[in-house]
Structure formats: structure tokens, C-alpha cells
RNA sequence: CGGGGCGUAGCGCAGUCUGGUAGCGCACUUGACUGGGGGUCAAGUGGUCGCAGGUUCAAAUCCUGCCGUCCCGACCA
């Protein structure tokens, strides 16, 4: 194609408000333009990249045995009421009413629609396992869209839903999708990790996220320095602590006037922070719930949210609520004699001779021991904390380290959550009605564009992997407007390469060479041919076979062979 | 939703504190020169200063309200 006839509005400067590299470069290279917060128009170059990604995803999904369908963006409320999510979902579910006053939503995901399809159309174990996928527009009214298409409100997602007759069959599909995702990301030349993850409001038992590694990533991944363990920080666990030492001190109450924070208390009492236990008051269905952690540990909100009786979403109790329930302020509360439910992080449960608030302002206990001084039931002990870098890995191999990642895929083991709620059944081998085991598998297509750029750019601009580049070859015709020999050679190469199926972009604009080179570096096509009068006089053009390779002098007639 | 920043030409910004005819660079149009890394000269186009109301002889500038957008915390492909 001719660059003079494509809308590729490049920018010299990054627009204000674009923070991360991919967002800046997508704007500068003319891939996208913003319409409103979290809403984007994809320009010709950007759309071509989307199409490439979709093609790879389709190939690999088809290879894995999934079948492509296309479901509607607008979905009737009734189906969401059946699954229970009409009420469960907050304002991120965009709702609308039609002219007949019927309620609908813009689909943020399609479990309800696909489960409805299954219960209507699939009746026998003989039709299973089956796996349906689509590549389609999703809308989620995100609280905070950000980083361009990285977290947009409207975006393109590949989502797949599998139905299995038994657990073994489901497991096979889940493994296949895990492999399929790995193949897709490998083909895009992405450095990624598959990690154990939390299931969020999709529900189900287990899930794995696929993260593209990038400093700009919004998620933290904890991984074992040896062996294969990797998990989202939300879900990551360290190896269990060693058994609790025997008590060595007597319990006594001490005055800690004005000491509100763990750091202050530890310093005042000259006790290690790790031996001071902090009590966090979480809002529960019937008043505050105490979460006890070591002073040097951080509460994990996802884990805490799963404690019985915790009000959703997780919030901390106010000072007034804490005072009403314990008689003390937030800085002086503790598990000894607490009149509210208490849950103890397993690391905190393994500390002996600890310090904790005395439920009286300005007073703490020291030398406290579980069992001896206060009861500790095993059911109270949970993993409640964020792991820290350097913690022993749960697989017993090395220590935990952290990486930043962009979540581009998430696969879920749904179990029968949706099939049960929506009454989807099939007849099994014995002719009995049975509930299918479901999985769902999401991959963010438009987010992948940004993720690829985060890993594939340099100071000058984009550096597309060959599999994703909007065009394979960039013909840069210097002085195209005036030089007849350049024009002839350039037009000839464009025709020849295009006829051979090589997707080629010819810069035929009446721009000076500097502008063309700068734009070419910004667009970042992997292969480049520079056509200028100087070279043509020697009977050659300059070919760059890929990013970072040297220029070679090649006769125009030989160029095609280099790219086919 | 809480906290903070920003809204002036297509893009990047100055001007706002201290009210007095709206500016700079780039881009765009026309012409000339130039022609292998964002070139030079000349002449131009383009703005209800986010919106509404108020104060004032006079508002981009001061006041009030609203909207948009970006960033930081609770959600997710």
C-alpha cells in the first residue's frame, strides 16, 4: 500500500497524559486515537496489528479443537438474573433499557449467554467435550480506565467456554487451553509467565493468569527462584512457618503511652517488629473482625475478603466501630480477651513471647503466648498476608522473587457454578441428567497490542516482531516525487512484492528523507528497503532484513527473493 | 468512590498570581530554493481560551457551579 493514501498521523511529541511507552507510541505512530476515557478508535495501522493477533489466536484455538461462534454485545437481564450476577455485579456492568422497558446489559463477559446456548442446544455426552470461542467487543465500565488500550472500557477479547461431561475430560481441556495460550504468546515473541491466580467475580475454584513481563505491569507476580512455582501476589503463599517455639517469658501488661503504630511500639519496647503482632479490624456482617498479623507483614486483601463473615467488598472498620467493639482505639487493640471474631495469620500464630495491644488505650501486653495465655483454634489460623521477596518458596525450592506483569490471559476452572445456577444439563452415558463442568478462557486482544509494544520498542519507536507487524516490508523511496528512476524502481518493487503476497508499505510521500527515516523508525516495520538515486546509480537499493541487522546493497531484481 | 493535577489552534506549551485588542514552537496551505536522517526563506489558514452563571467600564485572568481528562489508592482481558 501507499503511505500517501493511508491515514498514519505520526506525532513528533507524545501527547500529554500518555504515561507508559506503549500508550505514547501507539499515539505517536498513529495506531489509535482516543474518543473518550477508555474508548478508542483504531486507525488503519493499529487495526492491522489487531488482525494479525486475531489470526494467530484463531489458528491456535482452532488447532486446540475449539469452535468459533459470535455472541451479542447486548444481553438480556434475565440471563444475568438467573446466574445471580445481575445483583452481584456493581456499576462496572453497564445496564440499559430498550423501548419496551426491558432491561439489558452490555456484555462484560459471556458465561450466561453460552450456558444458555448449551442448555438449549447440547443434550448428550456424545456432543462433549465442547469448547466455544469468540473474538468480540466487551464493555466494562471500569472505575479507572488507564494507560490507553491497556485498560480500556471497550476492548476486544477472545473468550472461550468449555463444557465437559466429567472431571478428567475437563482437566484435559484445561491443560489444552493452557498449552494453547502458551503457544499463542510464544508466537507473538512475548516473554511471559503463567501464574496461579485469584478467580475474582468470575467465580470457580482455580485459575491461571498469563502475564507479559513488563515494568509498567499493574500486577505483581511472585515466583520461586528455583522450580516452577509462580503466582499472582494476590494468591501467592510462602512455605509454612516452622513450629512455634515454647514460651520463654511471662505475660505482663505494660504502659505504651501514645504508641499507635507497630513501629512506635516496637521501638518503645525494644522488641523486634516481627514479634509485635498487629490487629487489623475488618468490617464484618455483625461488627468488626480482627485479623492478626506479624508487625512486619502486610494484610492480603484478597485472602482477607474470603474470611467467613467479612462484609463485601473488604473495608476496614472505622475508629468508632473499633472503639465500640473493643473499648480501645485502633492502635491498642489485640487478640487477648477480644470479644469479636479473631483470625490469625499462620505466621503470627507461629510467634512466641509476642507483643500485642491490650484493648485498653496506651496499654500493650508483652510475653504473650498462644495456647498458654489465650486460646487458638486451628480454624482461626489462615494464610492472610502478602508474601514478601525473600520468603521461602512454597514448593520448598529457593526463595520468592517478584516481577511485574501485564495480565493478557486468564483461564478459569468454573466447575458447575453457571451450569448449576442456570439449569444446564446433558444426558450422560447412563441416560441420567448431569451437570457439565465448565471452564472459561479469556485473552485480551487489544491489550495484547499494548503488551507487545511494552516488550518491543526502542528509543526511536516501535519494533514489531515479524508475526505482528502491520506490514512486513517498508519501502522508503527517497525523493519519490521528483526522481523518475526512484519512482520507477519503487513502484516496481511495490507491485512485485505485493503480487508475491508480501505485505508492503511504500513511503511515496513528498517528504524529505529525514522525515521518512524518522517516521519509519517510529512505525518499526521489521524489513526495510531504501530506494535512492545514489544507490540506483550503482544499480542497487539498500535492504535491511530485520531489526538490528546491517544494511546490504542489493540489486532491485534480487529484492523479492530476500523476502519470499 | 476518595485524593491530586490539568483543560488556551491538530500536537506540545506560555500567558492566569498582579483583569486592559490571545501568543510561541511544531504541524497545515501556497510559492521559491533544497533533496540520504524531522532543511531554508517568504506569504498565509486556523482559537466561542472546556461549559454555564456571577463580579467589573472591561474576564483566558477574579468568584460560584458543572463537565471533560489524566495520575495515585479499592476492580479486571
How would you portray this structure in words?
The chain is built from 15 helices and 30 strands. 26% of the residues lie in helices and 27% in strands. 42% of the residues are buried. The mean pLDDT is 94. The chain is globular. With 564 residues, it is α+β, with helices and mostly antiparallel strands. Helix 2 runs antiparallel to helix 6 (167-187) and helix 2 (44-63) packs across helix 11. Strands 3, 7, 8, 9, 10, 11, 12, 20 and 23 form a nine-stranded mixed sheet that branches. Strand 14 (277-284) and strand 15 form a beta hairpin. The structure holds one RNA strand of 77 nucleotides.
Key words describing this protein structure:
564 residues; 9-stranded mixed beta sheet; 15 helices; globular; RNA-binding
Structural class: alpha+beta
- Tally of helical runs: 15
Low-confidence stretches: none
Strand content: 25-35%
Roughly how many Å apart are the termini? 18 Å
* Overall pLDDT score: 94
Strands, count: 30
Name the shape in a single word: globular
Backbone CA Rg: 30 Å
The description of the largest β-sheet is:
9 strands, mixed
Helicity level: 25-40%
Quick description:
By secondary structure, this protein is an alpha+beta fold. Strands 3, 7, 8, 9, 10, 11, 12, 20 and 23 form a 9-stranded mixed sheet that branches. A 5-stranded mixed sheet has the order 27-26-28-29-30, sandwiched between helices. A 4-stranded mixed sheet has the order 14-15-16-19. It is globular.
